[in-house]
Amino acid sequence: MQEFTLRSCFVLFSPIVMAAFKRRKVDSECRAFNEEWGEKYFFVEIKNQKATCVICTESVAVLKEDNLRHHYETKHLSTYLKLSGKFRTEKFESMKRVFESQKNLFGESLLKMNLSLVQVTK
Ligand SMILES: [Zn+2]
Predict the structure, then answer these.
(1) Which of 60, 62, 64, 93 lies 20 to 30 angstroms, CA to CA, from 48?
(2) What spacing in Å lies between the alpha carbon of 120 and ligand 1's midpoint?
(3) Distance from the CA of 24 to the center of ligand 1, in angstroms?
(4) Above 90 in pLDDT, residue 25?
């Protein structure tokens, strides 16, 4: 009798427990920058757990893949869709280098201006 009660309790609550566990796992994953997002969406991680787009230097306040993907798909997909494989890796690496050197030289406030100049003169 007791065993039956325990088992039915388990059956009843396990989906709830599983759902709660799953949700917590997703939440904690969202707070960390995933290295794959770099090449996938052209984002780099900067301090304060923010991600910045190396194409237009806009940052995304909430570190969630959905936000990064949305930014990339609405603003840059048409330009960068063609890039794949090692071309994509090379492009991302070179843009990241420009982004980082600009940031070190001019600080973040001037970064936007300088990068937009680079893009215009290209
Ligand atoms: Zn962008």
Answers:
(1) 93
(2) 15
(3) 29
(4) no
